[in-house]
Design a protein that fits this description.
Length: 171
């Protein structure tokens, strides 16, 4: 048989099925083919004919589709879980920030007598922010329960020393 230029008949398999001819413009021989393609060629020859029927191919295609769908579902759940965790943490940080701003604004109304307390609040918030972000980098099992620090204790003491008879203190 005459083949067009650039084609070579490299192998004819024992099955003597014309579909078993190797025709390629990219590869010169079976040895040049990628490993998966060579494996597929030999498996095709090793499989009984009924495994190569259209029904068997459809079952394999459906099984592959099912595996792909389940993998996509698992990845979707993983992403949803990560987003939910992020949204919760973000909401907590936003609430904490709003509470700190509200406290700072309330302390500002005390005037100069609350300046030291406001400075103590700023130090406490800085320490708390560093703790929040450093905890998120640790493994969950390594995170310890929240412990007060000296800056927080100082802030509470300063808040307790503010005038009790003030309308602001009662609120």
């Amino acid at each position: 048989a005459d083949l067009p230029p650039g084609y070579a008949l490299a192998a004819i398999f024992a099955r003597e099925d014309p579909r078993d001819a190797f025709v390629s413009t990219q590869y010169d021989s079976l040895a040049d083919l990628p490993g998966g393609a060579v494996l597929g060629i030999f498996l095709r020859n090793a499989l009984p004919e009924h495994h190569l029927s259209p029904d068997a191919k459809d079952v394999a295609r459906l099984g592959t589709g099912l595996v792909g769908t389940i993998a996509a579902l698992v990845l979707g759940l993983l992403i949803a879980s990560a987003k939910s965790s992020y949204d919760i943490r973000s909401g907590q940080i936003n609430q904490l920030t709003a509470n700190v701003i509200l406290l700072d604004n309330s302390l500002e109304k005390f005037g100069a007598q609350a300046d030291a307390t406001r400075e103590s609040l700023r130090r406490t918030v800085t320490i708390m922010a560093e703790r929040i972000w450093s905890e998120s980098l640790l493994r969950p099992s390594a995170v310890t329960a929240y412990q007060t620090n000296e800056a927080f204790t100082e802030l509470v003491e300063r808040l307790d020393r503010l005038p009790a008879d003030s309308e602001l203190r009662r609120s």
